[in-house]
């Protein structure tokens, strides 16, 4: 077993440098750091790119939405730094690998990798389709795995540490009955991130799970709704609620940079995300009973 692991392609790519066995040093200064963000064409991805740009980082921007991504790149450049737009479908291993080859043709390794691309979906389990299960898991979970698999070997081999940010969700520790597919994908990201953090500590690479709550981004309007969730004006009601809630992706971006600076393991973002995080641990039974009630803005 040990010999098989030693001979694996991923392990061989990491074999250039024998890293120190120590806890990662938090990354306090982002000036001239190489940062790649997936899902950068809008929402949390765009605002995090702008926050890193303001802090002096150099940005690599990956998305399937070329028009939106070009606009993000322009906004990043307006901050006085570099912004390289990259077309990438994170669900496709070949696409991610090609992107990594392009990036590594210019730089040795990333300093910060943010696996942020994701999709939303809602619908009770009996209404969900296997096609939607596969699509959501391919993007939300395997997109994170593909990003780590493509970029971490170079970060490890360089031997200078770094940081990985995986966008999970408050749905990564609290699963409402209307989001079994989405919650499963985010629980998986949360578990993967926890394991990866323990693994990468020996390489001085920090790993953080970002868990936003109700954030006003385009994800809800673009979400796949199944069963009763697709009926009438339910989706527009959710979109309106998110708008009225008005917790912005720019606020999430600031929380992300702070989490990296302090090498935080799990970072809930927004009051409800924090409330669910605490309640899940202190009163899981009560939270479970409350989850059976329909959300008031859907009635």
TrEMBL record:
Q: What Pfam families is this protein classified in? A: adh_short (PF00106)
Keywords of the record, alphabetical order, are: Oxidoreductase
Q: Where is the Ketoreductase domain?
A: 33-218
Cited CDD domains = SDR_c
Show the InterPro entries listed in the entry: KR_dom (IPR057326), NAD(P)-bd_dom_sf (IPR036291), Sc_DH/Rdtase_CS (IPR020904), SDR_fam (IPR002347)
Instruction: Tell me the SMART domains matching this sequence.
Output: PKS_KR (SM00822)
Spell out the GO cellular component terms annotated for this protein, sorted alphabetically and separated by semicolons. membrane
Q: What's a Gene Ontology MF term here?
A: oxidoreductase activity
Residue ranges, annotated region (Disordered): 1-27
Under SUPFAM superfamilies, the record lists: NAD(P)-binding Rossmann-fold domains
What family, per the record? Belongs to the short-chain dehydrogenases/reductases (SDR) family.
Q: What is this protein's name?
A: Ketoreductase domain-containing protein
Q: Which organism is it from?
A: Tamilnaduibacter salinus
């Amino acid at each position: 077993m040990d010999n098989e692991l030693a001979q694996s392609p991923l392990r061989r790519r990491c074999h250039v440098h024998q890293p120190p066995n120590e806890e990662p040093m938090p990354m306090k200064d982002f000036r001239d750091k190489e940062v790649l963000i997936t899902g950068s064409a809008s929402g949390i991805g765009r605002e995090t790119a702008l926050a890193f740009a303001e802090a002096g980082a150099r940005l690599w921007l990956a998305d399937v939405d070329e028009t939106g991504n070009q606009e993000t790149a322009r906004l990043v450049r307006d901050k006085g730094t570099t912004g390289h737009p990259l077309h990438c479908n994170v669900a496709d291993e070949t696409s991610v690998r090609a992107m990594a080859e392009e990036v590594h043709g210019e730089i040795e390794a990333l300093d910060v990798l943010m696996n942020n691309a994701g999709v939303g979906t809602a619908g009770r389990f009996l209404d969900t389709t296997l096609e939607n299960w596969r699509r959501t898991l391919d993007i939300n979970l395997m997109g994170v795995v593909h990003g780590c698999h493509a970029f971490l070997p170079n970060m490890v081999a360089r031997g200078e540490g770094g940081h990985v940010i995986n966008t999970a969700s408050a749905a990564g520790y609290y699963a409402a009955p209307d989001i079994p597919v989405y919650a499963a994908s985010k629980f998986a990201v949360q578990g993967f991130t926890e394991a990866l953090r323990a693994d990468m500590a020996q390489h001085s690479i920090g790993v953080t799970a970002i868990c936003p709550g109700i954030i006003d981004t385009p994800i809800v309007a673009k979400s796949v709704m199944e069963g009763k969730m697709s009926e009438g004006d339910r989706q527009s009601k959710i979109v309106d609620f998110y708008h009225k809630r008005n917790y912005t992706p720019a606020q999430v971006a600031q929380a992300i940079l702070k989490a990296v600076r302090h090498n935080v393991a799990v970072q809930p973002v927004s009051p409800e995300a924090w409330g669910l995080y605490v309640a899940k641990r202190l009163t899981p039974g009560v939270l479970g009973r409350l989850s059976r009630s329909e959300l008031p803005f859907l009635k």
